[in-house]
Amino acid sequence: MLLMQRYLEKYYNFTSNGQQVFKSRISSPMAKKIREMQRFIGLEVTGDIDSNTLQAIQKPRCGNPDVGQFAFFPNQPKWQKKHLIYRILNYTPDMERGSIDEIIDKALKVWSQVTPLTFEKVLHGNADIYISFQSRAHGDFYPFDGPGGTLAHAYAPGPDFGGDAHFDEDEFWSSGVEGINLFYTAVHEFGHSLGLFHSQHPDAVMNPMYKTPMANQPILSQDDIAGIQYLYGASSNPPQDDEPRKPNSEDKPALPSACNPGLTFDAVTTFRGEIMFFWNKYFWRKHPQYRQIDLDLISEFWPFLPSGVDAVSENNEKDETFLFKGNQFWVVKGDYLLPGYPKSIHSLGFPKEVAKIDAAVFSANEKKTYYFSSDRYWSYDENSKTMNRSPQRIQNGFPGISGKIDAVFHYNDALYFFKGRNQYEFDLNTRRVTRILKANSWFSC
Q1: Which distant-in-sequence residues (6+ apart) come within 8 Å of 99 by Cβ?
Q2: pLDDT at residue 27, rounded to an integer
Q3: I want to staple 379 with a disulfide (CB 3.0 to 4.6 A). Which of 174, 201, 362, 388 is the partner?
Q4: Which member of 189, 300, 353, 366 is catalytic?
Q5: Is 309 annotated as a binding residue?
């Protein structure tokens, strides 16, 4: 039990807050986090500490959390320059210094081959990325744990520790299959140094679990490449030994894969126990407790709507869903359009200068609906049917969320704000951002 709790605290942002961690097999805080962990690493989602789960949490892995935390990933980090300087501060005695230099250079080239980034090694002076081998507590508040367990960790681009990669000196490092392969681990950690989160994709180098590298197998998966190229773009000089890519029908500007790490959404909402994710003229439907994802055309579900939506919000107390497009909105019960719609958004009380709604979400506790447009938000009192005439800055009402957002929805005790390829979990009790996730993390990719 204690081993499981410590694992969840370290990698899944678990806090018991003084509650009994296993008071109920279904609803306890720990059971919820176990299900989240099982879903992330591809285990059967039970919420139980079964043998497969115990085995998984004892495997060697990266020390970075599986859900984004501000300590490692503040906002959406990336380097603002293309030429980066690195410096190796010390060396493990497990390998020759020359071999380590070659492996570090080779690991960085894995990322430079698919991006415009270049890397330069220096022996002295300042650098963007500092690389070191450390043991136990080493001055960054994230101590290593001895042989096995945590192998290394790295920080996202930024000041202070930003970009730095630390390798656990208590491991036995090698260039082969004995001990821990330094090259494979370094490629993973440098992905963090460049701004990538962990991936749920089992073949991705950014998957948190250590795997013995296989000969003649590409080190980067398409998931890794898509993620890093979303941040920095593609290389202008791709490797020449790759096979030419064959064009196919998927190259057309059509529906992206649900597991594309660069996927963004136009709107997200709950809908009768499910979650709907809108993109262009489509939407995905996903129940939080099941892996299945259904894809539909908006026009097949609601034929009276225009193609695409700007914002969607469910009032689950009335079983009504509000859909916004431009300066109009529609209200439906299931697939039935209520009489009198569409109406102008200004009938809700918005000032004339508001031309469209970016996102909307209903708060059952407050009996209010929050509407977001540009970098401001309004609150609408569902009881009095009146709009607050004084909009607030999003960052003032929701610390950690700033600027324009793409979508938002309410689930359990949190709001999930979507900005680009990321979503931010905002705890309504503590009024702070607790996790940063990929926008499509709900899809169990």
Answers
A1: 175
A2: 55
A3: 388
A4: 189
A5: no
